[in-house]
User: Fold this.
Amino acid sequence: MAFQDRSNALQALEAEFQAEKASSLRKLEVKLEETLRELSEVERQLRSLRTADRRAQLARHQALRKEAEHQRWCFMVQREACGFVNHDDLDRYYPLPPSWRE
Assistant:
């Protein structure tokens, strides 16, 4: 194989890797956004609940928050794999709400 052919093949492979990393990053972002929206909805419901349902919603909130925290970490790791090393925007665009207690 000629040097130019090999170089082109390597460039194509690198482009494919970059596209896959970007696709994975977007999937993680969408999943995090969905979880944060669901978490926000549970918080909205918690503000108005005063019954036994509140305990179940608190447990759901804790589980969702834990999941969002994990998803945010995965998103951050994938960002680093894509070359983004400054994560200041994560706090601004994907803030984790505080934990709720009874």
About this structure: The mean pLDDT is 88.
